[in-house]
Structure prediction request, 277 residues.
Amino acid sequence: MLLKWAGGKSWLTRNHPYIFHNEESLFSRSLTHPSIEYKKYIDPFLGGGAVFKHLQPNESLISDVNKELIAFYQCLKSTPEKLFNEVANHFKFHCEDYYYETRDTVQKKNILIAARFLYLNYTCFNGIYRVNSSNKFNVPIGDNDKFHYSLEDFKKHSKALKNAKIKNQDFKDTIYESEAGDLLYIDPPYVTQSNNSTFDMYSSKIFSWQDQIELSVLLEDKRKEGVHIIISNINDIEIINLYPIRNGWKHTMLDRANSLAYRPKGKKYKEIVISNI
Ligand SMILES: C[S@@+](CC[C@H](N)C(=O)[O-])C[C@H]1O[C@@H](n2cnc3c(N)ncnc32)[C@H](O)[C@@H]1O
Prediction:
């Protein structure tokens, strides 16, 4: 939603929409509307919110550990016009000096935090979000100097968020809130036992291999309680072993491109979707 976000899943909703359908709708290829039935949509690793945007749930709980990201969604929901004006104001002054001045400014009010966040997201190098150990955003300027969205776009997204509960919290607290019949979409940082390379992305809090293990234990409990679960992750044996087929998990290997029609044997797919649906 308006953001550039590392690990964003718009490729998944665009090229593999069947992931969000039940077997019946996959069979009949009626992919225009999502047809997994669920009570509430819950997304504890919200990021750019590609799946929320795709499913357009009536009722939802969306959250992320990144404070500025959540301040942005809260303002987009409650005061889209104010947010748009603040962001447009930043763009009026955009130049290298202004970028670095804004990057070094600490804001206290939610609306100013949100506007600064969106401005930096658009103008920084490749839309990366990276902070140092003191939680200071430290990405250099990029070459984008235009903001393509209108007030109408902000209002449209605000409307889509109308019934969403938006929280800044750790994934565990959000997952605890899920109940039988809810849909949990899980898209954690791609960390494996042997590769912790996302250590400095998204927030100053590191998502570790230990977190991956705790996540899988929690999701196993939730699977037994009857929560519908869809997990995106890296296609890696260490991850696969956390969600065994014998416990009822299904594994679908994927490429970012749409390779549904042609799946050559022996090909190494980089992504995996694990689900109990
Ligand atoms: C792969 S991204 C999610 C991308 C998202 N699905 C999209 O389409 O843009 C992972 C997200 O997890 C968040 N995150 C990292 N550690 C977390 C934690 N302990 N609890 C909650 N969120 C966390 C990051 O801030 C980041 O936004």
Summary: The pocket of S-adenosylmethionine is lined by residues 5, 7-9, 44-45, 47-50, 64-66, 170-171, 187-189, 202-203, 205, 207 (CB under 6 Å). The CA atoms of residues 45 and 121 lie 18 Å apart. The first strand starts at residue 41 and ends at 43.
